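Troubleshooting entry. Yesterday's outputs looked truncated, so today I'm pasting the complete records for two proteins to confirm everything comes through intact. If either block looks cut off, that's the bug. Protein one:
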Amino acid sequence: MDTRTARPFSFSFNTSDYRILHIDPDQGRLYLGSREYLVSLDMQNINKEPLIIHWPAPAQRKGECQMTGKGRHGECANFVRLIEPWNRTHLYTCGTGAYKPICTFINRGWRAEVHFNPTNAFPVSFVLMNLFFFSSPLLHPDGNLYAGVPVDFMSTDPGIFRTMGSRPAVRSEQYDSRWLNEPVFVHMKQIPDSAERNDDKLYFFFREKSLDSGAGASPSVLARNDEGGQKSLVNKWTTFLKARLVCSVMGDDGVETFFDELRDVFIQPNQDERSPVVYGVFSTSGSVFKGSAVCVYSMADIRNVFNGPFAHKHGHNYQWTTYTGKIPYPRPGTCPGGTFTPGLKSTKEFSDEAVNFIRAHPLMYHPVYPIHKRPLVVRSGVDYRFTTIAVDQVDAVDGRYEVLFLGTDLGTVQKVIVLPKDPTTMEELTLEEVEVFRVNTFLKISFRPQHFNQQLYASSEAGLTQMSLHRCGVYGKACSDCCLARDPYCAWDGENCSAFTQATKRRSRRQDVKHGDPLRQCRGYNAKVERRLQEKVQFGVEGSSTFLECVPRSPQATIKWLYQREGRRKVLNREGEVLKTPQGVLLKTLTKADAGLYHCLATENNFKHTLARVSLRILDRDIAVALTTPDEEEEASRSRHQDPAAPTPALLLEPEMRLIQQYCQSYWEQLTAGGNSQADLPKRANRRHTEALKASGE
């Protein structure tokens, strides 16, 4: 694969709504679910023919679904929503089944293309009714399936469920807005609390309608070994707690803006499996202010909130306050048989007081604030929103860095790094933005950076795309550009900007992610680049416009144009006559005074260097007309129609003819470089040049 481009995949079958459901590093497979298809790709050789299973919903069920009024948007089909390893030989997979979910076991080694017989699948219990809203499900090695999902046909009964396996099926309390209030489940993860496995907890992340105002983001926690209550909350979670996630920024006017729509969550593991880092993507819920943000949370802060005071509505205004009464034993949210309750083997042994307390007080009083009490990345006043996130830890010469890959609803992926600027502020750098889909679409990105040549995969309703985590070649062939890029994946190897590896000889590599200082890193290389920079000759016609191109390789660079004539340089700043763009500068109406040498200077991190030199030559208007004088046939036709005669080439002066010759020679050289020779050029162009030479006396 060409690592400089994103590569979309197309399949021969008609489907849509692609979702990356599982990446298996041991088998080297990527499993993709879509409408009525299940696809397996070989990640070691992505060009290899994929393994395909066609799994449609039964025709009878499709008809029943359409009879209920569904199907206007193609919902009456089998959308594959779950693929999880069951054992070494089989996968457990589920589909929506046209609003009647079906599940089955699939052999990992199926043939290249299989039409799956729906009769081999079995319907699942009511707890998986609406798989359209599946959060990231978890199939535990003990055979239990955990998921957050609505269970009724109209999606009015959402819940958090455990089904299958040896443990009893349990769910969250029904129709109680204190527990769940119109939630949209985003992510879930099992995270241990201690070395004692009975302390393992499941964390669900979702957004829901706040009881007090608009939307809100919430993490919830429950014990994995929860079996429900004995008398109260029978077959319901007895350890369910939730809190509020805060992601906000304070404006210059003192008004706090909240990003309260949780869109995606990425859990970054650490060496200590009990302390992963939680990255959340948020957007604003209102239509007046459109923005997105990324906030980062520590598990220590999340645990402190769940170990803190409970929320309680009290007083004549029925406002939320801290619960000050007696907290029952065991403390609500505690796992049975864990570090603090070794004598309790099951939640069925919890006291009625403890169970009734958690039913009425599932919400914690304090919210969870992000690290440093502020977002890591903020976007406002833009025409897009972040929809998904993946984070990679990259080892560079000067340390380890977190690189964020942020998908947008415009079908692009932004590659962002955040660096400490000083002890109190952070500096956000957008390294690049890649268009992975050419249509506006909701992205979901997944990758395993430690495997498979560091590839990232993006899925959406439109399809699947593969792209490399690094594209070092786009930073150019100058040491300064490579250093200024501050991309931890890339380093200057003495000749090119290439992928950095720890095995590279330290003496030859140049990289400075923290400071991006080419003066220190690229001594001796900068002067060579300036000397190798060629002067480009460009021609313009008096009275017309021309565009001088200069595209900086770094989005952080600022561009300044200098105009040089008769040895003197000055800043190009002519209001109304010049239009500056990110790709260069447009001279609107050329005059002979515009002829001269133009320098494009880039400044970044106090480092200045020349990106382009353009020598602009201005052709007289009469010369331009002469160059476009029609041949004999056209002249005869013109005279028959009594058109006015064009100026003759004999009017041209000797200096002007030299400009024409240079222009034509430059034009021919460009064509020759493309594989053409002068003999291959149109005869009409050769004839014109001959006539011009005769007119000048040569």
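Protein two, checking that the full record survives here as well:
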Amino acid sequence: MNSGDKKKKGLDGGWGWLVCLGSSLITLSLRSLDPSFGLLFHDLFIELEIDSTGASFIMSILDAIVNFSGLLIGPLLKKYSYRQVAFFGSLLSCTGLILTSRANSMFYIVCTYSVLGGLGTGLAIASAFVALNTFFQKKRGQAVGFSMAGTTLAMMIVPQLIHLLLNSYGFRGAMLMVGGWALHSTIGACLLRPFEPEIKSTNADTKDIGRLFEGTWSTGMSKAEVASCLSISAFTDILARLLLPTIFDRLGFKNRTVFWVFCILVGIGRSIMAAQSKGILLIITFVIIGFLRGATLVNLNLTVSEYCPLNKLPNAFGMFMVFKGLFVVMLSPLIGYIRDVSESYALCIHVMTLMISITFITWSIECMYRTFKNRKSVLAKQAQDIVIE
């Protein structure tokens, strides 16, 4: 049996499912905290007099560092295995979270939570999906969906857990517990056994989770109600990530098309959510948005790999992460500034919907152009065939 046969035999199964489990464990340990950022830091921000602009700045730096770490993945994986890089990143992220428990200023939070934690998280998650992409080809969409489903499952539990920890231990004690929770990512890193030592392909799918629920206090909701809404949304999110990839793969839908459609639906759903107050309508909106968000995020980075050859994927994905980081750095403080000036979370959500709409419109124009061009080519070929006959 030659090496090519071995590669084909090892793809889409076997140890790959344990790699999928390890990837899921890493992402749920390091990224499941994101939607509960406002819930966890709310009292500390009041104590330190950090406004919405400052909170947005902290998160924008975190997201920027996570994305910019993509530039380091290629060079690191040329020298070390993705298991080693993921393990180091996991330890780095856990250290940042534990040190954040002693936070006494915004600068301290940026250094530990945003920079240290962001760098570790970016390295660990990107390395995990290098392994995931290596072990899966035909079932890649399903594998990504399953691995991300673990994160969403944790999102159902984490808000309730944080609410209990805050009531029992306060912010500093709760943050130490969160650091311990994140340490489980090292177990996931140990499951990332290299498929072939020389294979360094990547399909990182860093989780990009919306933090729009931070504004729920403006509707008069308590922390317990916020935690419940987050869990409800996470439940429908996990359903979408588990069910839709398999369905879309069998129907032959392109990842970009699915992302394009569900992206605008998420924007519309969030704007509808902004107009709701406490009650059953708000809960129904959370249910729908959670499902739409899961369908959107599971196809986000798969869109990049769909249009890029495997040998060029590391550079393409690194460029994608850098541009995403640049937009986060530029736009997140702007959103926070709009919130402070207008004192309205609803306006911030509508502004983000407008940004999504701009992307949707530009892709729509491109889609119409491609359709027109392809149709024109077909007609020209048919006319040429008629002339020849």
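Both blocks look complete. Sanity check on protein two: The chain has 14 helices and no strands.
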